Amino acid sequence: MAEPSNSLKQLALQKFKRNFWGVFCFIYIIIVGLVSVFAYALAPDNSQYANQMHLAIHSKKPGFTVQMLTIPSELKVEQNVFDKLFFGKINANTEVPILKYSIENNNLVYTEYTSDGLLGTEKTLNLNVFSNNKAEEFISEKTFVLGTDKYGRDLLSRVLVGARISFFIGFVAVFISLVIGIFMGSLAGYFGGKIDSAIMWIINVTWSIPTLLLVIAITLALGKGFWQVFIAVGLTMWVEVARVVRGQIISVKEMQYVTAAKALGYNHYRIITKHILPNIMAPVIVISAANFASAILIESGLSFLGIGAQPPMSSWGAMIKDHYNYIILGKPYLAVIPGLCIMSLVMAFMLIGNALRDALDVKG
C-alpha cells in the first residue's frame, strides 16, 4: 500500500516543480526565513532591535554617508555569542555623528553633525578614554544603504529585524490555528450529533465577529506585547481550519478504509489520527498558506494601530505607522519600503498556496 502513496507524493512534487511561481515563491520564503533568523548577523546595526538612534541624521536619503565617532563606555557588558547572534548586541558605547575632527594637546576636538547647513557644536574629548590614546580607531565612515528613519535609525537594519516578527507570527498563528482547528473539526465531523451542533455553534459565533475586532479584544485582554499578538492572531484563525477539516471528515468517514478500521476494533483516536487525517491534509495545507498571509496582514494592521509589537521592537506595520505622513513630505520610501516588504511576503504565500492547491489536486 505504500507504493501508491509514494507515487502520489512524487506526482504532486513534480507538478509543484513545474510551477515557476510556486518554486520562485518557495525560494523567496526560505530566504526571508533565513534573514529573519539571522537578522542581527546581516544588519549593519546589530544592536538590540536595531534601535541605535542618531537624531542629528534623521530622515536621510538612501546612500547617506557620515563620519561616526564611537565613544567607549566604562560599563562592562558580558554577552555570549548566542545572544548577540539571535537577540542583538547590547551596545553601551555612545555613537556621535561628526562633521570633522582634529587632535590638539592630547584632546580630540570634534564638531557634531547638524542638518540644514547649520554649524554643529564643537566639543572636546580627552584621549585617555580611548585605548592607546588612538582616537582614529574609533572614527569610521558609516553608510546608510536605505537611509535613516525619523529617529535617525538605520532603515535597512530595521527592515531586516522587522522581518522576524512578520515571519514568525505566521508560524505561531498557523500552528495554533492548526492545533485547535484540527481538534475541533475532527470532533465535529467524526462524531456528529450534539457534539457537531455545539462545535458548529462556537464556530459560527466566532466567525460572525470581525477578525480584526476579535484580535483587538483578545490583545487588550492579554495585554500588549510580542507573544500576546501571536496568540491573539492564532486564536482567531482556527475556525477556517475547523470548517475544512469537519467537511473533509464527513465526506470520508463512511469510506471503506474507515469502516474496515472500525471492524478491526481500532479506537476513535487511532482511526482519526492514523487513517482519516493523513488523507485529508491536502486542503488543510493549502488553507494554512492562506492563513500565513492573513496573519502577516493582521499583525501589520495591529502594529499600525499601536497595539501590536511595542517599541523599540521593529515591525513593518509600526514602521509604516511612524512614517506614513512622510509620503506627502517628499520621502515616501520611509513608508513604501516596509509596505513593499509586507506586500511581497503576503503575495508569496498566496502564490505558493495556489501552487500547492494545483499540485495536490488529484483530479488535475
From TrEMBL:
Membrane association type: Multi-pass membrane protein
This protein's UniProt keywords: Cell membrane, Membrane, Transmembrane, Transmembrane helix, Transport
Domain ABC transmembrane type-1: 163-353
GO annotation, biological process: transmembrane transport
Compartments reported by the entry: Cell membrane
Record carries keyword Cell cycle: no
Transmembrane annotation, as ranges: 20-43, 165-191, 198-220, 226-245, 276-298, 333-356
Key word Metal-binding present: no
UniProt cross-references to Pfam families, sorted A to Z: BPD_transp_1
Name used for this protein in its record: Peptide transporter
Annotated source species: Neotamlana nanhaiensis
